[in-house]
Structure formats: structure tokens, C-alpha cells
Amino acid sequence: MNQFYTPTDHFSLLPALLLALFGCAILMLDFFVLPHPRQKRWLIFFALLGEFFAGLALYRQYRFLEDQSIPALRAFSDGLIIDGFSIFFNAIFVAAAVLVAIISYRYLEVEGEHHGEFYGLILLAQCGMYFLASGTELVTIFIGIELMAVTFYILVGFLRSDRRSNEAAMKYLLLGAFSSGFLAYGFSLLYAITGSTRLPKIAAELAQRPATDPLLLLAIVTTLVGLLFKVGAAPFHMWAPDAYEGAPTPVTAYLSVASKAASVAVLVRLFLGTLAPHRINWEPMLAVAVVLSLTIGNFSALSQTNLKRLLAFSSISHAGYILLGLIAGNRTGLTGICIYLFVYTFMNTGAFLVLISLRQKGMTGDDIDDLNGLIHRSPGHALLMALFLLSLGGIPPTAGFIAKYYIFLSLVETGHYALAITAALFVAVSIYYYFRIVRAMFLNEAGQLLPALPGWGARVGFAVTALATLAIGLYPEPIIRFAGTSLLR
Amino acid sequence: MDMLQAILAHPWFTPLLLTALIIGLFPLVAGYIVLVERKVLADMQVRLGPMRVGPHGLLQPIADALKLLLKEDIIPEESDKALFWFAPVISTFTALSAFCVIPFASGVYVADVNVGLLVISAMSSVGILGIVLGGWASNSHYSLLGALRSAAQLVSYEVALALALLSGVMAAGTLSMAGIVRAQQERHIWFIFDNYGLMLIPFVVYVISAVAETNRAPFDLPEAESELVAGFHTEYSGFRWALYFLAEYANIFVVSAVAVTLFLGGWLRPFPNVSWLELPFNYGFPALLFLLIGLGSLRLARKLTWRPHAIGMTGVGLFMILLAGVVLIPPVNAVVSSPFWFLIKVGGFVYLMIWLRGTFPRFRYDQLMNIGWKIMIPVALGAILLNAIVGMLRIS
Amino acid sequence: MLDTIFFYVFALLTIGGAIATITRRSAMHSALSLIVSLLGVAGLYLLQKAEFLFAVQIVLYIGGIMVLFLFVIMLVNLDQAAKERQFNRQWLLGLVASVLVGAQMVWMLNSAGVLSLPAAVPAPAATGPGNIEALADLLFREYLLPFEVASLLLLVAIVGSVMMAKKTS
């Protein structure tokens, strides 16, 4: 019997271990050491410290792979894998969690729901995501998904006195539990077919099976349904607008960015790795989901007046673009997915950050009308918002363009011309509704509302997100290299 | 004769015989436990207890049983009839089912499954349903409150109970009831004294949780007569009520049997590995016990004024003296000494529970929950940790 | 032979209980039917010689979870809800859809053939403590990681439910 917790296991688990440790420590500190509401802000520093150490551990993993020049490190007898892909995605999660931690403070103060658990839960959700990016074993992946999802159910309903938040949490919980059922069904079928829960073994078994195997088809369908729900792609997007709208805005940002990235990581690992030989089965289904996501996401966004809902529908369409890379499935496509998610983290969080800054007592600030004449009230915010929206739309000097460029390139490379043309058409649609917001900010009459009051957290958040959005757009080489090296080495 | 041999040697013989004995005799045993309880409580309160039916009330249980069977069967008008009818059956069925894994002596059990202890846990947890459903189906406020209380109480204390059992299971290394006793035999120690006495902690937790789990005073909130009339069985009468009663006493017997098996050496006599003690413990003690009971009964019989009572009591006394003689016959002794020790320990445990009832006032509901969640469960968890560490150190 | 009969009895209990769970109007009867269904599953475990799972299924699901279900049902007055108009008006559509999906799955499983599944690993010997030890071995060696992560999941669930239930100060 082999030793069951080797140094390699420890090394590969370290970031998640640190996140869990700091998450629990924050829960304890919140209760025992810093019970006073005024003291809760110090917990942010503990959260950041946890992120710092987790990031350090990730960096050590990265150096280790570079130094040994090995493509991947396997641990827990094929239960976990440390490769460039997992490190890249975990870097995204760290970035998202840090941003969310620093921008939540003022928002929660305004809402009067500033509890220390918030920061602990953010870290614990990230811990779940770690297992999505690195797990190569079905049970680990499933529990990781559940850890992430359960944390988000709580975070979405964090504003207990707000009915919309309660409603959002309820809807998200019910539909999320339903979709988890699908996922569990798919995973159990995979196990039934192959007799193993470890992805390398499953891949080896599946490679020998005919593509027409109905049982395998059933497994693929149910797994795909479960994961597409978590990604927020149509036709399993129903929860997204309500959950995004009702959730506290920092949570919405976290949900739209990190949760989506983590689920995409699982999709990529399962469908481009384990299930790659059966592409003929899943490609059409995925294509349908993509076209539906683009259609529903973009056309529904046209008629929204609530900014959070609008961004929710836009995030559905972004899920569509990201999945296009999966359909292409070549190296460029994978690079595209990675860059897209990386860039999306910053531009989307930035857009939500503007909404957070507008949030004040007695004023939600998440209607389009609330942005009327923002350029006169707080020009900085208006300009930043315009930048993020341009990037979300994919206009050239911004990072969003690079992301979309790679996705389209991969589609053309693999000969998916019809999909490429459809997606390009929808970019035009999306630009229309992003510009509706810009028009409201720059051309409409100013309302009676106060100018935004950014705190130090928002300032740092703006600096980081804006810088990343611009810098990646203007000088994308490093991130392309980082994303490129992370894949399929 | 061969036929008889074949029947006796058949693997199904002991289980079937035991099943028949349990189902047939336990109602009687339960009745007499009730009598003992009434007598002991009466003694503690300086009363005499039942004295009329039979000498010193010895036939009272039979009279009670007859009364219950002949009573009018009342089902409340607005109740959920099917459930009202079925709920006591669940309680009784599960309580009696738990008997099937209890080893009365080496080889004397209905079944020795390798998860015996868990089966008992499972049965007692399903038994809760009988109480909850009975309370709900009665469609009465008192019943419903009793059912609510019992659901909360039983679920809470079940956790502590299971955790306390876990320490014992760790020491034994098996979940099989007979296996646990054999482990104590091999280790030459009752588990209550194991791990340098640390096992006393889970034992105490077990005793307290077991009292709560059987709804006995001071944890008898589900049927607190001063507030809830009779709690979940307020609307029950006659035979169905008797079933609840039977289930309650069966549960008392079962939790006592588990405590005896897991902590007190099951069917083993004290110091089972010291062979010269066999004479005093296996022969001397039971004989002396029966002899003293017999002599005591004869003394009591002399004081009775009513002649039939005096004759009955004399008969009991003579029968006890006869028993004292019988247990001294070596072949008989070889068969009965193990069950004797098992039953005497169970009897002692049952006496302890009666004693607790006579001594402590009832807890308030919040106190009950606090004890369960804030004291019992942490203590039981700590005991597991401590015993695991000490046990590991002792082995290595 | 006896096993086959028991299998069908338990399977019937499981399916019948499940159907009754979703068709009974009274919440209490639904919960009871669910208990019957779970008991059927426990029986199926027993037939597979998984005594430990059998006992745990009963202790946890029936003794723990379902009793708490009943507790909540008794606390909340659901009589009113039972009398009101229900939202599930599309039961006909639902029935057709589920029959179709069910038929499709049966056809799929049938054409896949049960034989194309890998041969089941024989269960550990029924006697002796092998059953539990095998399970412990799997949990604490093979699946150590998910087992430990599951504790985090439970922690988060507890924190969440306490937060939601906590009185606002």
C-alpha cells in the first residue's frame, strides 16, 4: 500500500490548503478576536495575506515546473494535477478574489451587512475553484464544484434584509442543486462505463469505446448540461439574470468572473482532454449551446434597463464566445479561452466596480438612468466605465479585442466559418447595447444624483482593472506567452 | 433422538428459539420491569407501591396487561387514522428488532452481523418515527408538542450517543456485538476500565444520552405529564398505548444491553481471565443471590395476613431456593452462568435508570438542548480524540 | 431465487415510495413515502452485502434527515398549502416528457447492453469486518482528498445556515 500523503501531494495541495486555512482563520478571528463591527475591516488584510501566500505557493509550483521542465506534476494518485493550465486558472482566481476582497468593504458598509464571514467565504469558494482547475478525479471535481456553488449560494443571499438578494439566493440554490444532480448523474455514468473516477484512466478506457455508444452519449449529455449551467450558457442560463441582479454587486462580479472561469476549466479539462476522442458527440451540442447563448444573451441585453441584469445577459453571451474556443479546440482556441477569461476578469470586475462606487445609501445606482450625465458628476468614473464597456464589446485598443481576436482566429483555423460569422454579427449587436450605456453617461442630462465617492479599495481596484484592460490591449505579448505556455506542453 | 439432535444442531435453532422467546416473553419481562420500577420508586419515596394484586403486588403486571387489552379502543375523530394505527407498531417493531443482534451469551444471539452496533443505532433511530408520527397523527396539541420535542431531543442525543459508542468501537476494533465482547475477553479487561480509565468519559456520556434517548426522567420532556398531559401518547389508550409502553421498556433493555456489551464485558463474569474466581463468581454468587431472595421472600410471607398471599409468597421463596440449588449443578451452570451475568448487569443498569428517575427533577427544554449540544457532543468528541491517541500509543 | 424476490420487493418499495412522494398532497404523507423509498434503497444495499451502507443509510437518512423533515413539517402549518391551488398545472406535459425521456433512456441502456459495462468488482467477503475496512481504505487512502474537501463543504454549509438563521442585531 502506497503512502497516502506524500510530500508531492502536499506541494500540489498547498495553495488550496492555505486558502482553507486562512478562510477558517478568518471565521475564527471574526468570532473571537475581532467581534466589533468597526474591526471587520482588518479581516480584509487577513484575506489578502491568505491570497498572497496562496499566490506564492502557486508561483513556487510554477517555478518547480519550469526548473524541472516537466509538463505536469501528478499527485494523490492521479487525483490532482499541477500543470501550466491549472496554475494559469488559479492565477485568475487569485486576481478575482483579491479584487473582490478590496472592493467589497465600502459596499457592505453601505448595505449594513458587513460581516466577517464574507471574506472567509470568498477564500473558501476559491478553495473549491482550486479543485476545479487542478482536479483530475471526478469526486474531487464534483465536491470542488459543490464547495464553490454552496459558498456562492450564501454570498448571493448575503444581504439578508434585501428581498431581491433572498430571491436571488433561492433561485440560484434551487436551480444549482438541480444542475448538480445532472452533473452527478453524468459523472456516475462515466464511472459506470469506465470503472474509474480518475480522468487519465477514464480517457484510456473511453478511447477504446465506439463513438456511437449510447451510454457514453448519455454521460456526455448530462455532464455537459451540468457544466453549462455552472458556466451560465444558454439554454441553462435562467438563474443568471436574477442571481446577478439580486446578489451584492461585489459577489456578482466574483460570480461572473471566477465561478465562470472555474467551470470553464473543468469543461476544458474534461472535453478537450478526457472526452476529446468523442468530439463528434459533443461538438454539435456545444455549438447549439453557443449559438443560443449568443442569441439570447445579446438580444435580451438589448432591452434591459437594469445595469446588473444587462451585464448578466452580456456575461451569458461572453460564455458563448468562450465556449467557441472549446469548439475550435486547437492550440489557438485554448490560448483564446485563457486570454479571454483573464481579460474578462479585469474588464468585467471593473465594470461592476463602477456600479459599486455609484452605490450609496438610499440609491442603488444600478439602473441605466442612474448613469445619466455621469461625465458631469464624476468624469473619471464615466471614462473608466467607457473603457470597460469598449473592452467588453471588443473594440481594438482594449484587451477585449485581443481575447475575441484569438477566439475568431481559432475558429477560422479549424474551418468553423459559419460559427465565426455568426459570432462576429453578434459582436455588432453587443456594441449597440454597450453604447447605450455610454450614451447615457455622456449625452443624457445629468440627474439629481450625487457624485460617486470611491474609497481606497475602489481606487486600487480601478487602477488595477483599468491598467490591465489597457495594458493587455496595447502590449499583449507577455500574457499570450503565459497563456500559450500553460497549455498542452 | 437423532431427530432431536438434528434440530438442536441446526443453525436456525438458536435464532428461532430466541426470537420466539423474545417476542413471547418480553412483554411479561417489560411488565415486571414496570413493577420493579414502581416498587423501587415507592421505596425511595417511603411508600409501599402496589400491594393488592398478588402478594406484594406480584401479579400487578398481569392485571395491568389484561386491563389494557380489554379497554375500549379509541381513535380520535379528526386523527390520521392509518398513521394513528401504524405509529405504535413502528415503535414496537423497531425496539424488538434491535434485540436480534444482542448477544446474551457466547453463541446465544439471533444474528451476529458485522455491523451489529449500527443495526441497533438504526433501529433506535427508526423508532423515533413511531413517536413523531404517533404525536402528529393524534391531531392534538399536546401530542404534537410532545412529538416535536421528542424529534428534536432524540436527534440531538442520538449524535452524542453514537459518538460515545465510537470510543468503545475503537477499543474493540469491530462493530459486531459478539466480537466486542470477545475483544474484551482477549484483552482481559472490561472496556469501561480501558485506556487507563479514560473510557469512563464515553461511558458517562453514553449513560446520560441513553437516558435521554429512551425519553426517561430527567429527560422525559416528550411526555412531561405536568405540562403536556402525556405528550405524544396523550390520545392513545388500550392496546396501542400498551405497544408504546412495550417499546419504551424494550428500548430501556436494549440501551442497557448495549452499555453492558460495549463497556461492561457483556456476558463475561468479573475478572474472566482469573480462573480461580470461577467458583465464587459462577457458582457462589448466583446461588447466594437466589438463596437470599428466597429466604427474604419466606420472611415476607410470614408477615402476610391474607392466606392466599402468604401461600403465593411462600411459593416464590421456595422456587428461588430451588433455583439456587439448580445453578449449582455443573452442566446447568455451564449453560446459564453467561446469560446470568449478562442479565444481572442489564438489571443493574435498568436499576440505575430507575434510580435516576427517582432522584433528578426534569430539565427545562433549553437546558436539555444545551446539555446535548454544548456539553455532551463536545465531550464525546474530545473523548474520541483522547481515546484514539491513547489507544494508538498503547498499541505501538 | 430468494434474493431475486427480495430485490423486486425492495425495488418496488423504492419506486413506489418515490412515486407516492411526488403525488401525495399532504406534506407529511410525502415525507413518509420518501422514508419508504429510502428504506427500499437500504434494503437494496443489504442485498448487495453492503451492511455498513445499509445501516448508515437508515441511521442518517431516516433517523437523522427525515426526522428533521418531519420536525419542520410539524412546525410549519402546511394544511393551508395543501388546500390551495397548486402551481404544477402542466402535469400532463410533464408526464409526456418524462415518459419520452424515460423511454429514450431505456432504449439507450438496452442497446448499449448491460454486458458492455466492465465486470463488477466482486464485493469483499460478506463475513468478517472486511466490508467496513474496505470502505475505510477507500475513504482514507484512495479518496482522501475529496473526503477532506467534503469537510470544508460541510463547514461552509454550516456557516451559511447559521448566517441565514442568525437574528439581525
Description:
The complex is a heterotrimer of chains A (489), B (396) and C (169). Chain A is an all-alpha fold and 489 residues long. Chain A has one domain (7-485). Chain A has 19 helices and two strands. In chain A, strands 1-2 form a two-stranded antiparallel ribbon. By secondary structure, chain B is mainly α. Chain B starts with a helix and ends with a helix. The mean pLDDT of chain B is 84. The longest helix of chain C is centred in the middle third of the chain and has 25 residues, at 51-75. Chain C has helices at 2-23, 27-47, 51-75, 79-83, 91-112, 130-142, 144-165. In chain C, α1 (2-23) runs antiparallel to α2 and α2 (27-47) runs antiparallel to α3 (51-75). Chain B binds chain C through residues 80, 83, 113-115, 118-119, 121-122, 124-126, 128-129, 132-133, 136, 144, 147-148, 151-152, 154-155, 158, 162, 173-176, 179, and chain C through 28, 32, 35, 51-52, 54-56, 58-59, 62-64, 66-68, 70-71, 74-75, 127-129, 131-132.
Helices and strands in order, then pairings?
The complex is a heterotrimer of chains A (489), B (396) and C (169).
Chain A: H1 7-32, H2 42-68, E1 72-75, E2 80-83, H3 84-111, H4 117-134, H5 138-156, H6 163-194, H7 199-207, H8 214-231, H9 239-246, H10 249-274, H11 279-302, H12 307-328, H13 331-358, H14 374-377, H15 379-393, H16 399-413, H17 417-442, H18 456-474, H19 477-485
Antiparallel strand pairs in A: 1-2
Helix pairs in contact in A: 1-2, 1-4, 2-3, 2-4, 3-4, 3-10, 3-13, 3-18, 4-5, 4-10, 5-6, 5-10, 6-7, 6-8, 6-9, 8-10, 8-11, 9-10, 9-12, 10-12, 10-13, 11-12, 11-17, 12-13, 12-16, 13-15, 13-16, 13-18, 13-19, 15-17, 15-18, 16-18
Chain B: H1 2-9, H2 13-44, H3 60-70, H4 81-97, H5 116-137, H6 141-172, H7 177-187, H8 200-213, H9 225-228, H10 238-263, H11 278-303, H12 307-326, H13 330-359, H14 365-395
Helix pairs in contact in B: 2-3, 2-10, 2-13, 3-10, 4-5, 4-10, 5-6, 5-10, 6-8, 6-14, 8-10, 8-14, 10-13, 11-12
Chain C: H1 2-23, H2 27-47, H3 51-75, H4 79-83, H5 91-112, H6 130-142, H7 144-165
Helix pairs in contact in C: 1-2, 2-3
